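Can't paste images in this forum, so I'm doing it all in text. The chain is below; anyone willing to post the predicted structure tokens underneath?
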Amino acid sequence: MEPPSPDKRLRVAPFAIHATRGILRDQRLRRKTMAICLAVALIFLVAGLTVLRPWLDPHEHPARFILYWLACAWETVLVLLLALFDLLLVRAQTRAARKALHEQVANAAAQAAARESDDN
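Text version of the structure:
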């Protein structure tokens, strides 16, 4: 079997970028991702403070301790950034809906005024 040609191989960076865009643009998928990441962060926290405490002893295994809590912090920051992004998108959608509603009300008022002036 011959190796895949260079243009047929999966390029990781473009795939990751495309997948991330898909997650960020779809509200349901973004919120599911937030929920899963939050659950993972909570599991990291509980496990690190209970079950894995001897394994993560900072005096015996400082590198393991630092890497573990960095991973926990990474998950937490990811959830916070996704939540902030979701909040900003919801605010933008609300602003756009409010603007469309104002335009509809203004158009309806203009049409009503035009009909009233035609009647007179």
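The chain has one domain: 12-119. Residues 16 and 98 are 35 Å apart (CA to CA).
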